C-alpha cells in the first residue's frame, strides 16, 4: 500500500512530467535547429573576384560549379575583404591579375586564392575550407590537364611538320600529296591527344588565405559560445534565487521597494560576477588584458539583460517560471549562432535570435577575441533588450497583487 502510494505520489508524477517536458523540449529544439547542417550551408553567401580579363570563362565556370546559391561577383578585392570581415560573405575566390597568361607561360607560382574568415562559427569555417580544397583541386587538375594536353599536341605537330618538310625537300613533285597526308596526321593527333595524354607539368595551384586567425583548439573556436551560455545559465538560476529574496522582502518593505532593490542587486551582480568568471577564461585561453576588459563590459551587459529577461517569467509564475526560462535558454543555444551562422538558421531560430541575449554576446565575443566589426550596435541592442525587460517588470509588478505586507508571522 505504501509502495503504491509512493509510486503514485505527486513527487514521482512531478518527476515524470519534468523529465518528459525537458526531454521533449530539448530534442525538439536541437533536432529542429541543427537540421540546417549540412544542406543549408549552400545558403552562405560567397564572392568571386576576377582581376584577370582573360579569365572570364573561368569565372563563369566557378559560378556554375560552386555549390552555393548566393554568389557575389560585383565586388573589388578590397570591398570583398571588407564584406568578409563583416560576415556579409563567408569566402572569397580571387582570380589574380595575369592568371591566364601565367598559366600559358608555365609559371610555377600561379595560384587561385581563397579567402576565409576564421572569426566565425566552426561549422562555417570548416565548410568553406572543404569547399576551397575541393574547388581548388578541381581547377588545378583541369588547368594542368589542358596545359599538358596542349604541350603534347604541340610537340607531336612540330614533329609531323619537320617530317613533312624533309619529305618535300626529298620529293618536291609530291609536295601536295605530302602536305595532305601531314594534314590528316595532324588532325588525327589532335583528336587522339586527350585519350593519349598523360598528366604533365604542375603549372597552377591554389592558396587558402585566412583572416582573423583563431588559435588552434576547440577551446578557442568555441570560446564565444561557451562564455555566453555560461553567463546565461547562471542568470537563469540567479533570477530564480533573487525572486525568493524579492518575495520575502515584500512583506516588510512592499513590492515597489523590493523590486527596486532587486534591480540594484542585478546591476551589482552584472558588475561583480563577470571579471571573476573571465579571470579563469583568461588563464585557460590566454587572451590579453585589453580583451579581458572589453569582455567584462560585454558580459556585464549580457548578465544585466539576461537576469532581467529571466526575471520576467519568474515574477509572473514564481519558481514555476523555470518552465519557460529553461526552454528559452535551450532555444538560445541554437539561436545564439555560436555553432551555426544566423543566416542559415531555420526561420524560427532566426527570429528568436533578435530577442536572444546570447546572440548579441556571441557575435561581440567573436569580434573582440578574433576580429570583426564594431560592437557598438550589438551592445546597444543588448541594453535595449534589458530595458524592454524592465518595462515588462513594471507592468507585472504593478498588476500583481500580494498579501498585505507586515511582519512575517512566526510559528
From TrEMBL:
Gene Ontology terms for molecular function: ABC-type transporter activity
Signal peptide region: none
Membrane topology: Multi-pass membrane protein
Gene3D superfamilies membership: abc type-2 transporter like domain
Protein origin, superkingdom: Bacteria
One Pfam family recorded for the sequence: ABC2_membrane_3
CC annotations in GO: membrane
Predominant place of localization: membrane
The ABC-2 type transporter transmembrane domain, residue ranges: 16-391
Transmembrane segment boundaries: 12-31, 225-246, 258-281, 293-317, 329-349, 378-399
Keyword terms, alphabetized: Membrane, Transmembrane, Transmembrane helix
Compartment(s) where it occurs, according to its Swiss-Prot or TrEMBL record: Membrane
KW Transmembrane (keyword) present: yes
Xref: InterPro entries: ABC2_TM (IPR013525), T7SS_ABC-Transporter (IPR051328)
PANTHER family tied to this protein: PHAGE INFECTION PROTEIN, TRANSPORT PERMEASE YVFS-RELATED
Protein name stated in the entry: ABC-2 type transporter transmembrane domain-containing protein
Top-level taxonomy: Bacteria, Bacillati, Bacillota, Bacilli, Lactobacillales
